[in-house]
Sequence to fold (194 residues):
Amino acid sequence: MSVPRKRTGFLKTLWQQAVTLRERAFIPLTSYPEGYWRHAISPHAPLRERMRAVYSDPDRRQMLSALQIWLPASAGATLHPGLQDLANILALEADDAFRADYYPRLPDVDVPEDLVRELMVALQREMDREASRRRMVPVRFVELPWDRQCALAERRRHWFAQFSITPDNWSKGTWSLWRVKDDPLPDEVRRKFH
Fold:
């Protein structure tokens, strides 16, 4: 599920205030029927104030500490809308793996070789499905040089961790809004997708 391109009124104001990964992950939760963000708070309160209000409520804080990574949908599982920036970042990483003149590995992120191979197979399945849907010729991840395959796997693991998704969380299928890094959205992502 992607964030609507046309933003008006209240949501537009919130998106304008959102600078960090955590703030941007919080905003899609405002449309949830559970009303994670609805509090006895001014309707004109700034984004950070809304987040503090939700965090101060133990029940809501707990709800946002164990969100599902994947949500059921009629055509299969869909990524949680709070993780849309992660999806955009990963799409840019995959594109860079094929197009960038320089695509270095991350020395402080370790991904075992067998997991790199599994990831390339999984990425290929996803790419084939998308290419078929869009009637395009899919790229071939296994044709990337091995160093680039490893770099892509390492960068994916790095970005998942920025959104609080570790191998342990992945196996549980959950992520925590409060553990998403409070770092700014990369400029390249902001330029391309927003």
